[in-house]
Each structure stands twice: as C-alpha cells, then as structure tokens.
Amino acid sequence: MIFARSLLFNVLFYLNTIVLMILGIPTLFVGPRAIMGLARLWANTTNWLLWRICGLKAEYRGMENIPEGGFIIAPKHQSAWETFSLVPFARDFSYILKRELTYIPLFGWYLVRARQIAINRSRGTAALSEATQKSCAALRAGRQVFIFPEGTRRQPGAPPDYKFGVAKIYSESGAPCLPVALNAGLFWPRRAFLRRPGTILVEFLEPIPPGLERSEFLRVLSARIEGATNRLIAESLALDPSLKTYLAETSA
C-alpha cells in the first residue's frame, strides 16, 4: 500500500509541477514577487498531495522565532522535503544552487527571474567567494537566503558535518541566522522511493544574532540544530516505534 501511494504521489508531483510551470508562465513577465507566490503555491499543493495520498503531514513549531527582513535560514538537511516545504515561511527567498539547474528549460527561467543564487561549483574557492558576495547582497536587500549548512542530505542519526560556507556568509553579511531542526528523513529518506505516513516535526529555533566569531558561530549552530533534531527524532520514534525498523531498512 505504501508503495502504491508513493508511486501515485510521485506521478502527481511531477504532473503538478509541470502544470504549475506552464500556467505560471505569465509570472515570468510580472517579476520576482509573482514567481515567489507561484513557488509557495507549488510547495503548498505538494504538501497537500503528500497528506491526501501518503498520509504525511507536517507540524511547524517556533514560528514566532522567524525574524523580519534579511536573514539566513539554515535548516537540517535530511530529505528533498525541506527543499520546498520551508519556502512558504520566507517572503523573498533565494537558494544557493548549482548553475546547471538554470539550464533546464522553463524551470531554469524561473530560477533566473526569481533571482536565485546560481554558482559554478567547478570554480572551487572562487565559487564560495561568489556565493558569499551574492548572498550578502541579497541579505542587505532584506531577502532571506537558504543555506543547508551540511551541504548535502544526511541520514537521521548520522554524525553532523557542518561546512565552512555558512559561517563565511554569516560573518561577512552581518545578518542573523535562523536554525531549523526537523526529522523529515524518518518519513522521506534520501535516495528512497517510499513516502511513509506520519507527521514531520519542524522547529524554527532561536535566531543566532550577528557578531559571533566564525568557529563559535558554527559551534552554536551545530549544537542548536543537532540537539533539537535529536529531540524531534526521539519524539517521533516514541510515537511510532516501527519507524526504527523503517529507518534501518532505508539506511542499509
């Protein structure tokens, strides 16, 4: 049953994405704010499909911690789920993403018009400098910049691996950082086809104000995200012990 529902969701996910991209073509001529609205609609309809088809929903906590104006959003990265589901909580957002995504017909046009931060990763340290420069400009303009501080998806319970890039942008931008803990990997694991029913727990944590030294910032960021993430994982495992077996199977 979970396989059939996951298959149906995947089909409708891509269909929904294609339909919205086609119907949303006029937003390309209106401007970035219209595209942001389309992105929020895409995120909300995708989550509605997850709920109605797979029985998977989300509970958001700590929304009072979301700052105004420009700030860094630093979520725990366990799944593809958080790449779109946190979008509705940012008024004028930008992701740091690889430049090749902008080459995708139609989808790439949206990325360019929405002023996303496309980086040529093959340039190494120059790419980090470029990402920092563009992120600082976006933050000064009052926008929100999404940065996954570990860079890639991590299995729930895996040792943390926080990268230097987020600390560099934090230090040079002078912007606050909003840590986000979640346990999406229990229900939508990386590199897994199945979407398991349940409730993804998301917690917006206390923002880290600007001014910390880089190493201290990374220590605080990691401690806050990892501590809260472990707590959310334990909470869901206590409610549904079968998740332990499922997690073991998907991480094998």
Features:
252 residues, alpha/beta, seven-stranded mixed sheet, 9 helices, 7 strands, 14% strand
Write the layout of secondary structure elements.
Blueprint: H1 2-23, H2 27-30, H3 32-54, E1 56-61, E2 71-75, H4 81-85, E3 93-98, H5 107-113, E4 117-119, H6 125-140, E5 144-146, H7 164-173, E6 177-182, E7 198-204, H8 214-239, H9 242-251
Parallel strand pairs: 1-7, 2-5, 2-6, 3-4, 3-5
Antiparallel strand pairs: 6-7
Helix pairs in contact: 1-3, 6-7, 7-8
Write structural notes for this entry.
- By secondary structure, the chain is of the alpha/beta class.
- It has one domain (57-251).
- Helices cover 49% and strands 14% of the residues.
- It contains nine helices and seven strands, in the order αααββαβαβαβαββαα.
- The protein has helices spanning 2-23, 27-30, 32-54, 81-85, 107-113, 125-140, 164-173, 214-239, 242-251, and strands at 56-61, 71-75, 93-98, 117-119, 144-146, 177-182, 198-204.
- Strands 1-7-6-2-5-3-4 form a seven-stranded mixed beta sheet, sandwiched between helices.
- Helix 5 links the parallel strand 3 (93-98) and strand 4.
- Helix 1 runs antiparallel to helix 3 (32-54) and helix 7 (164-173) crosses helix 8.
- The longest helix is centred in the C-terminal third of the chain and has 26 residues, at 214-239.
- The radius of gyration is 18 Å and the shape is globular.
- The mean pLDDT is 93.
